[in-house]
Amino acid sequence: MTEYDVIVIGAGPVGENVADRVVRGGLTAAIVEAELVGGECSYWACMPTKALLRDAAALRAARRLPGAAAAITGDLDPAAVFARRDRFASGWKDDGQVAWLDQVGISLVRGHGRLAGTRTVTVTADSGDVVTLTARHAVVLATGTSASVPAVPGLADAGAWTNREAVSATRAPERLAIIGGGVVGSEMATAFSALGSSVTLIARDGVLPNVEPYASEHVLAALRDAGVDVLIGGSPTSVSRDAAGTVHIALADGGVVEADEVLVATGRTPNSADLGLDRVGLTPGTWLTVDDTLRVLDASGEPLGDGWLYAAGDINRRALLTHQGKYQARAVGDVIVARATGAAVEDAPWGRHTPTADLRAVPQVVFTEPEIASVGHTVASAERAGLKVRSVEYDLGAVAGAALHADGYAGRASILIDDEGDRIVGFTAVGPDVAELLHAATIAITAEVPLDRLWHAVPAYPTVSEVWLRLLETAGL
Ligand SMILES: Cc1cc2nc3c(=O)[nH]c(=O)nc-3n(C[C@H](O)[C@H](O)[C@H](O)COP(=O)(O)OP(=O)(O)OC[C@H]3O[C@@H](n4cnc5c(N)ncnc54)[C@H](O)[C@@H]3O)c2cc1C
Ligand SMILES: NC(=O)c1ccc[n+]([C@@H]2O[C@H](COP(=O)([O-])OP(=O)(O)OC[C@H]3O[C@@H](n4cnc5c(N)ncnc54)[C@H](O)[C@@H]3O)[C@@H](O)[C@H]2O)c1
Fold first, then answer.
1. 110-137, pLDDT tens digit by residue?
2. So what's the pLDDT on residue 35?
3. Are residues 236 and 351 in the same domain?
4. The complex's ipTM?
5. Which domain holds residue 393?
6. Measured in angstroms, how far is the CA atom of residue 259 from the centroid of ligand 2?
7. Atom of ligand 1 nearest to the CA of 36
8. Cofactor note from UniProt (predicted)?
9. Could you say which of 3, 83, 184, 324 would form a disulfide bridge with 319 (CB–CB 3.0 to 4.6 Å)?
10. For every residue of 400-428, which 3-state class applies, written as one string?
11. pLDDT in tens, 209-228
12. Which of 357, 379, 411 is a domain's end point?
């Protein structure tokens, strides 16, 4: 079969979900995958990184409670951590996900997909065989991103790790240098220092520069307490690996970092260089620009052709997060079905077919020690957006539930209240186990709950969530 209602290129979490929604809506779908069904997220990103972090987090949690700490008789077992990580990466085999595609009725076409023209995709298999697929309704690009490696002289030839090598490592190197203090760099510094590496984090723009400064300060202090050498402002100028295998990273300030491995964690680049974009009038290698229902826009800002091409997930750069990409996937799958069947398209803000939360309320947990949970604006992003906000902060350690949760609990939380004073437009918390605080904030922001109604949402005593009451009291309620 070479004709389908919808063709999806890329079987990461986003492509899989687009195809699933389309098939649930009664259309046929083929999904094209060049590597493993499940994408970057399943094998080299979300789940395996969190598996590398989880044991050390549990150990730290137990050590904060004297009775539990007394039961700890040994140290972290890196081999057991790596073995559990292997399970969470499914041994880098996609049989389980392929079986799921089969079960839900999505056709898998293995190979490299390229646009060949309107609604036409060619797929080149590893054998070199090429098949041409045509779509009756739509083609969806969900090809994700790869690690971006900066043009630092020598870096490309030094055998540098990207997230793929770090996430699939079988042992912790004695000395690990990490270039980039963003989310990947900070999480991997947390993981590998706990697994026994001596870590140097080269953080040109600081540690986690996009979160509230107080949250990043907590993580910076904890990294340094854990023995990580954090070089704020460090900027690599050249990299080389000597005959003994040691990597030498020269920095702009004249310093040199020596390590056994170097991990590049300096952001992502779109997987669009070899996607046939030029065949449909788009520019290869670029992020794809989309409209409110994620139709790809041409150079004049209009949906390409009759609107047959969509882009969802990392590739459209709206939010480089799995949950947000899957949310886009649900909207795209459903809108394709609506347009194909003549049903109403709900494309107003917050309409079923418009992933409005991408622009207003993107939740994220950074799984460092301590964790950072955030959604919506930070003070800086609100300023950039021209919003007038009031920030209200509270010491999480002063909340009864937090004190009970762990001895010496240190953390902080804040809400941003918009200038009219009756809605929350941002939330951040930093502290042990704050991840599960996040969804309450996501609901408050997405539902635009007025503060005088939020006042009636009473947090249970004694939980860490009581910080909500304290924040509202501090705000003057
Ligand atoms: C180290 C790391 C940790 C992360 N941790 C988290 C986390 O904890 N939580 C979170 O929400 N997000 C996390 N992310 C981000 C998350 O991985 C991405 O947002 C997510 O993978 C995007 O999904 P996607 O389907 O758009 O792309 P991908 O997962 O990248 O999947 C794209 C798929 O398309 C395939 N493909 C590409 N080009 C072609 C082609 N031409 N033909 C055929 N197939 C093609 C690829 O092989 C791949 O399988 C992390 C990222 C990194 C790097
Ligand atoms: N827990 C999570 O949700 C999670 C975890 C990991 C990754 N992610 C996602 O993956 C994406 C990629 O993460 P990332 O950490 O690679 O990117 P990032 O954009 O978060 O951080 C990259 C960092 O690299 C630095 N940098 C860039 N170029 C540099 C250079 N030439 N020299 C030195 N430093 C340089 C920048 O200062 C920046 O802080 C993120 O956008 C994030 O959304 C999410």
1. 999 999 999 999 999 999 999 999 999 9
2. 98
3. no
4. 0.98
5. 370-474
6. 21
7. 49
8. Binds 1 FAD per subunit.
9. 324
10. HHHHHHCCCCCCEEEEEEECCCCCEEEEE
11. 999 999 999 999 999 999 99
12. 357
